[in-house]
Amino acid sequence: MKKSHWAEPYKIKMVEPLRKTSREERKKLIEDAGFNTFQLKSADVYIDLLTDSGTSAMSDRQWAGLMMGDEAYSGSRNFYHLETVVQEYYGYKYVVPTHQGRGAEHLIARLLIRPGMYVPGNMYFTTTRLHQELAGGNFTDVITDEAHDPDSDFPFKGNIDLQKLEDIIRKAGAANIAYLSLATTVNMAGGQPISLENMKQVRKLTQQHGIRIIHDMARVAENAFMIQQHEAGYADRTVASIVKEICSLTDGAVMSGKKDALVNIGGFLALNDEGLYEEAKNLVIVYEGMHTYGGLAGRDMEAMAIGITESLEEAHIAARVYQVHYLGNLLKEAGIPVLNPIGTHGVFLNARSFLPHIPQTHFPAQALTVALYEAGGVRTVERGIVSAGRDKETGDHHYPSLELVRLAIPRRVYTLSHMDVVADAIIETYENRDSIPGLAFTMEPKYLRFFQARFRQLAPEPALTTP
């Protein structure tokens, strides 16, 4: 598809001005932020690709829905609208709203994990693994090996390796498996989808052992679109029907509505087991709020219900993924090392190949986020050793095979022209990559260190030479 033959499937009726800063200003601003893009003020960012979570533009229908907020403390009509939409489009029986996705992660971990239990999953996500560990669980990665290879073009890197899953079941015993944590599109692997064929095989294996599947469905529509485009037998299926089939292969789900559902705040826990639902209803009151609002205003639930329906519209989801691929292909054509294949919610730069002179212990992906901000005011996020954190037993860093910088693209916010500007900043940075220094901690938080850590720049690394 040529750029001249494509346009965003919406028109713009409100704009938010962007502020451009000079390189000299940005160097000072990122130093003041401890060389951590999370600590920058949004007013000092030109193009913000830090995350696609809660940063989407809502539609006219969603804004209209905000005016229909029923702010009753209990029994809000907006909750019942959200419940109906979840049942219709996802197929889960019961819904417990939460303030965002990590609220649902906390609830399910507290409900199902006992100290010493194992939680296999298709690659960790930061907050998910932390909630599992705080509940006493042990996360175990059972994703396919291709997911750890940034150069592999395997189209379903989110797949679960059945042998790895069988091995952990045999090692731990099925009774000591809290649940299988299954993500549709795997964030830390580069937004990579899981195939329906793999999910069916996983469902069969888990049923044999009586193990629940809890679905991280924040980007399930994006995963369904990739199935439609790349998995045999699904080209003529709607994204909505594929989403419903995906959900039918799981026992419950945690949802961050800040992704697919196109809202700025909100999430839910969805379940099929009535007994577990009753426990969740009781627990949510302790940590979030009444089970019919879960820390959300009625207007937020209304916007989320409307956003779910919009997320499954074919024109929307195709445009959303196309914009990501447009940027990814620009970078690939320019010879920039990116993770292959391009995923669905962002483009991931391969920091190991981009900055081979910086060892992993000097945080090359974090260093690259600094350089990109300095070059063009583009805010990105590290997804490597800093995000991976430390081993809770040894205290040493986790050393992930992937050292990435994520350019997460908000939905319905930027145009292709913005993507052109981002590509220019990355290409310029790549041309000057040898001058980028590594980093060291000056302050390291105990939990989820990538959010609040501060760094200092090190002396330039010696250039690699070939004998």
Automatic annotation (TrEMBL):
Domain Aromatic amino acid beta-eliminating lyase/threonine aldolase, chain residue ranges per copy: 48-424
Cofactor dependency: pyridoxal 5'-phosphate
Positions bearing N6-(pyridoxal phosphate)lysine: K259
Alphabetized UniProt keyword annotations: Lyase, Pyridoxal phosphate
Top-tier EC class: lyase
Domain of life: Bacteria
Statement: the UniProt record of this protein carries the keyword Lyase: yes
MF (Gene Ontology): tyrosine phenol-lyase activity
The keyword Transmembrane is assigned to this record: no
Catalytic activity: L-tyrosine + H2O = phenol + pyruvate + NH4(+)
Pfam families per record: Beta_elim_lyase (PF01212)
Gene Ontology terms describing biological process: tyrosine metabolic process
EC number in record: 4.1.99.2
SUPFAM superfamilies: PLP-dependent transferases
Family according to the record: Belongs to the beta-eliminating lyase family.
Protein name: Tyrosine phenol-lyase
Naturally occurring in which organism (per UniProt): Chitinophaga eiseniae
